[in-house]
Amino acid sequence: MRDSLPTTGRIRKLWSGESDLYRDHHLRLDFDSRRSRFGCAVSEAFIDRYVAIANGIDSVIHGFFVDGTLRGGGELRPLGPALAEQAEAAFSIEKPWQSHGVGTALLGRTLLAARNRGFKLLHMACLADNRRMQQLALKFDAELSFDFGSVIGEVEAAHPTPLSVMRELITDSTGFATALLEVQSRLLRPA
Ligand SMILES: CC(C)(COP(=O)(O)OP(=O)(O)OC[C@H]1O[C@@H](n2cnc3c(N)ncnc32)[C@H](O)[C@@H]1OP(=O)(O)O)[C@@H](O)C(=O)NCCC(=O)NCCS
Predict the structure, then answer these.
(1) Of 100, 121, 124, 187, which has the fewest CB atoms closer than 10 Å, so is most exposed?
(2) Model confidence at 178, in pLDDT bands (50, 70, 90)?
(3) Are the C-beta atoms of 14 and 63 separated by less than 8 Å?
(4) 162 CA distance to ligand 1 centroid (A)?
(5) Is pLDDT larger for residue 166 or for residue 106?
(6) Measuring from atom 4 of ligand 1, which residue has the nearest CA?
(7) What is the pTM of this model?
(8) Atom of ligand 1 nearest to the CA of 2
């Protein structure tokens, strides 16, 4: 599965204290992308409330960073104890970085995280006219069976293996190293 990215971009998990980055990223989405992401036009106040919930303790959010700015996100959010083994997945990439493989890389990371947490059903709210998201999901048909009618994806083999856990650990540690370098370079930058 392709995991190549625009050369200047890096993917890593977001930390709990980074909800402002996630909020600002959603506010930068153009009208159409914001509508595709949330299924309808939404206000700034809605995004504020949404990000506060999305950044909950059980969520896993992978961020796509370019020069320290968050330009894309892939979100995995459990639906709660009443719907154990089910989660919601959502993706958002700012327009200039769309169609460059970022969604592919983020969905790959999100599926790996879902598998390692034992989720069997992934809900993705996807508008019927969102061809790109549908094409993207189809690329993962070996790992995800996706029913666009009911917008529910079924994660195949939804049980972690030592290898799948190791893959997530390895991508986390490279992401962490990159994050440290980013912070360091920000500190060293002349004021
Ligand atoms: C939908 C979205 C997540 C896809 O991410 P992306 O980075 O643009 O997609 P990718 O570049 O990884 O392309 C994935 C596949 O989509 C298809 N695709 C890419 N660009 C396309 C375009 N302009 N039109 C139609 N299909 C396209 C291709 O099949 C591509 O796979 P390939 O490059 O191997 O051929 C992203 O465009 C986005 O954030 N859109 C706005 C918000 C949204 O729709 N979110 C989804 C709802 S949760």
Answers:
(1) 187
(2) low
(3) yes
(4) 30
(5) 106
(6) 103
(7) 0.85
(8) 34
Which residues' Cβ are closer than 6 Å to ligand 1?
33, 36-37, 90-93, 98-104, 124-126, 130-133, 135-136, 139
At 84-140, the pLDDT tens digits run 888 889 999 999 999 999 999 999 999 999 989 988 888 887 887 888 988 888 888
Closest ligand 1 atom to Cα of 36: 44
